[in-house]
Amino acid sequence: MFDIALSALGQVMSVGHLTFLVLGVLVGLIVGILPGLGGIAGMSILLPFLYGMEPAAALGMLIGMVAVIPTGDTFTSVMMGIPGSSASQATVLDGFPLAKRGEAARALSAAFTSSLIGGLIGALVLSVAIVMARPLVLSFSSAELFMLTLFGLSMVAVLSGRSLTKGIAAAGLGLVIGTIGTAPATGEARMTFGIDYLYDGVPLVVVAMGLFAIPEIIDLLKRGTAISNSTPLGGGWMRGVRDVLSHPWLVARCASLGCVIGALPGLGGAVVDWIAYSHVVQTSKDRSQFGKGDVRGVIAPESANNACQGGALIPTLLFGVPGSGSMAVFLGGMVLLGIQPGVTMVETRLDLTYTIIWSLALANVVGAGLCVLMARQVARLTQVPFVFLAPFMVMIAMFAAFQASRSMADLVALIIMGAVGIYIRRFGWPRPALLIGFVLAPGAEGYLYQAVQFYGMDWLMRPGVIIIGLITVVSVFLGLRYGAEVSSEGASDVADQQTRGRQMAFASVLIAAAAFCLWESIGLSFLGMVFPLTIGILALAGALGVAFCIRRGRVAEIHDDDASGAVSGTWSGREMYLAVFAALVGLVWLIGFVPAMALFFPAFLIVAGKARPLQAALLTIGAVGFISGITWAMTLRLPSGIIPPLLF
Amino acid sequence: MKLLTTPIRAALLSAAAMLALPHALTAQDFSGETVEWTIPFGVGGGTDVWARFFAPQLSQALPGQPNVVVLNVPGGGSITGANQFATRASSDGLSILGTSASTQYPAILGDPRVRYDYADWTAILASPTGGVVYADPKYGVTGPEGLETLKAEEIRFASQGATALEMPVLLALKMMGLNIRPVFGMESRGAGRLAFERGEAGIDFQTSSAYLNSVAPLVDSGKAVPLFSMGVVDAEGNVSRDPSFPDLPTFVEFFTEATGAAPEGEAYEAWKALMIAGYSLQKMVVLPKDAPAEVIAAYTEAARAIVNAPDFRERAGEEIGVYDQLVGDEADAALQAALTVDPAIREFLTTWLSEDYGVRF
């Protein structure tokens, strides 16, 4: 075995192999940095190269791409507050506040160092586990996977901040949104309003962009400064590395967590960052800075998400069943190369298996190295007046949302989720809780249904179920005890007691959504109804609880970061910005994406940013050229509008 | 390095095949154009891999060697992408669609979301597949004589959905009177196999390439017992043994030997219709029917050149399998026959699906 491993290493280190690996890494970094794009977009760039390539080199290239997506996406999460991919959602919580504090370089270097170490641990675990993980993967049945989704949902206890009631209500709303679409058990349409777009559910990218990107863009525009509101601290770069090195056990624990979760097919990388984040909150002594810029809140998810890729390769290689979305793409690539993943491949082509493992380790080193080189320059972007960055971020957000299902409805859904996002942020409902509920809804329902169908009520007695159940109880207990200090929604305003009417109004929107979910579930068949009924009751109870607390004036639930302005009658302008974005969507629908952006950029830069015409023109050309280039290179689509096709 | 040279050789061969074409057919010239191949499934899935195997060859074999790009439009179990193609496709030969069983079945069943009509399309190439039903050895059943033993058990079957690829399998198992409890909502057939390997499902089904790759090792190590192959059903409804599994009885043979009588009646007619539309023509390349005749001819010749290339089998590997690819008129005639389903059979299918599985139409 060792001689095969060594000869594979020799092959990986050859110039030809390294060239393709670095090519893969570069593509992976780009799709990681651009929010909403993942392995699928990267794959379409690399595919044309794949034909006729030698399998080992091609595998190196594919692995290089897949491995560094969770490294590159950190840029977007830390610098812009937008989750670069689903694996970096939790990084936003502390990474973005660090950037706002002028410590972007520190946050980035800490993230890349943790990514590097996490990725190497992932490769190490893979090399050991690949020969003996079969029983482990097989021991996780639908019942255990359902318990893991419950465990994921229990993270709400940590991420709810001051008010658990609000957290439950937000998670409930997330679950309700996640239930939109076709029921996994019966294929019935639920809460689709007869709209075809909703049959597949609302895409994750749209929800994440709407909840995080749109409110942050509007908030920063409102403040009218740069992202960083203080001058950068010197030496932030080395400080980030030291931060990681002073928490070796945290990195090791989160990386192991990442490997295990990645190895379970079906749960995917979307929750691993949240679980790691909750873990660090629960095990830290000083929790006062979480959500406000604690570097440990960056280290934990970043160590876990790169390790997750190593873990996800285990079921992919052993069973030919992908452990995550990007692994599904990798699997397709292998089949195209004429390699059928499965236990046969692992046992008879050990050389290829080790090539994959070495490539994974190497890609993590190369990827983290390149990111560190870029980090210092990119960190300066936080000093640029935000009004110049805003149109670019709006364009990226819309570009990303549109890639979800290539439908104009994606952009409409983005604006609707953005509207939910700005109020949910203003009134201090924990957005991470909503996102967790949304991400876990399909898994929770599907696995519970399968578990009951396969095992009847006996599923509750499975040892794995009991163990995960106990862990969940402990986690909820710790979360309730220590999570109260974690704030994801910023500070409230002193006048917040006086705008209780508005807060009540928003709470009643949530009550209405939960009631609608309940109403819709009646009339479905039993199997299609059980889940929406359960979560509808949960969401309704949570939202009613919040409304009750606000009415009674309980401090924990009352939150309005715009209260003073609202009381004195000055308008914050949030709705105006949202209306501008909605108008832009309308323009895209009419004349197509690129022409609409070519009009929006100069208009926004000159009117809002007071830019000189030449400056505006250059920025417009740069931005539009960039997005067109990316679209062309990745054979993506942009909305073509309804007018241009009539003209040509 | 062998893999590096084969495609080049293939390219030369298909180029040579093209030179041999009559001149009238090369009137259509796609040079400098881009053909957009809509695949209504995600990247990395079976249909996507199939399309990406054919795309570069199609690019080489079409006159003028256009760029062939695969455009993935996943959603709605392929209905979204097929609908989009139906409304947007141009008929100049620069838009083609790849379909699969999950595109064909909703059209047959009259799913209200379907806004495409196979009658508007003409098939250029059709790739058949087959599949095998296998069971857990714990039942002690190895062949048709064990049917009574199986009937006494309640057997779970992990399936993607009642109207998915497994539909003829569910129907076959029902016809034999087995007490099957399907568990729907599997993400893929692979997830279903994992449930079988865990011992959750007692019976499972895989298409040919997946069976050869992932189930054959289980059979060898005594963890699975093959029962029957679905067989190959031709346009007239004759069922013959699957060339991938010449030693396995077909469903019809298994049924006949187990029950003492050949299958018949509406259920059997419906089963055959599903097999033809979803397996004999599992994956298809289609063009809008109103494309000019020379465009259709150019595509037909290109498809023929690809599948007749001497090393096609070798390169096709297990993904495409040993099945005969249908080309041109042959594919189109089969398609039109397959999609013309007797209203009585459709009625039978929708009644069965709603009674047994609560599917609503």
Plain-language structure description:
The complex is a heterodimer of chains A (648) and B (361). With 648 residues, chain A is mostly helical. Chain A has 29 helices and 2 strands. Chain A has a two-stranded antiparallel sheet. In chain A, a hairpin with a 6-residue loop joins β1 (181-182) and β2 (189-190). In chain A, α11 (204-223) runs antiparallel to α19. Chain A is globular, with a radius of gyration of 24 Å. In chain B, a hairpin with a 5-residue loop joins β10 (232-233) and β11 (239-240). In chain B, α2 crosses α11 and α6 (167-175) runs antiparallel to α10. The relative contact order of chain B is 0.17. Chains A and B meet through α3, α16 and α21 of A and α1, α2, β2, α7 and α8 of B.
Record keyword descriptors for this entry:
heterodimer, A: 648 residues, 29 helices, 1% strand, B: 361 residues, alpha/beta, 6-stranded mixed sheet, 3-stranded antiparallel sheet, 14 helices, 13 strands, disordered N terminus
- Stretches of chain B where pLDDT falls below 50 for ≥5 residues? 1-26
- Alpha-beta classification of chain A: mainly alpha
State the helicity of chain A in percent bands. over 70%
Structural class given helices, strands, pairing of chain B? alpha/beta
Oligomeric organization of the protein chains: heterodimer
Rounded mean pLDDT of chain A is 85
Separate helix tally of chain A: 29
Our measurement of the CA-to-CA distance between the termini of chain B, rounded to an integer number of angstroms, reads 54 Å
Question: What's the structural blueprint in terms of helices and strands?
Answer:
The complex is a heterodimer of chains A (648) and B (361).
Chain A (H helix, E strand, L loop, with lengths): L1 H11 L2 H19 L5 H12 L4 H26 L10 H10 L3 H26 L4 H6 L2 H13 L1 H4 L4 H16 L1 E2 L6 E2 L13 H20 L12 H10 L2 H16 L8 H12 L12 H24 L5 H12 L6 H6 L1 H30 L6 H20 L2 H19 L4 H25 L7 H20 L17 H22 L4 H27 L10 H6 L5 H18 L1 H15 L5 H21 L10 H4 L1
Antiparallel strand pairs in A: 1-2
Helix pairs in contact in A: 1-18, 2-3, 2-4, 2-18, 3-4, 3-16, 4-5, 4-6, 4-15, 4-16, 4-18, 5-6, 5-15, 6-12, 6-13, 6-15, 6-18, 8-21, 8-22, 10-21, 10-23, 10-24, 11-19, 11-20, 11-21, 13-14, 13-15, 14-15, 14-22, 19-20, 19-27, 20-26, 23-24, 26-27, 27-28
Chain B lengths: L1 H18 L14 E6 L6 H16 L5 E6 L6 H10 L6 E5 L1 H9 L11 E7 L3 E5 L11 H5 L2 E5 L8 H9 L3 E5 L5 H9 L5 E5 H13 L4 E5 L2 E2 L5 E2 L10 H9 L5 H16 L2 E6 L4 H16 L3 H9 L5 E2 H12 L3 H15 L4
Helix pairs in contact in B: 2-11, 4-10, 6-10, 10-13, 10-14
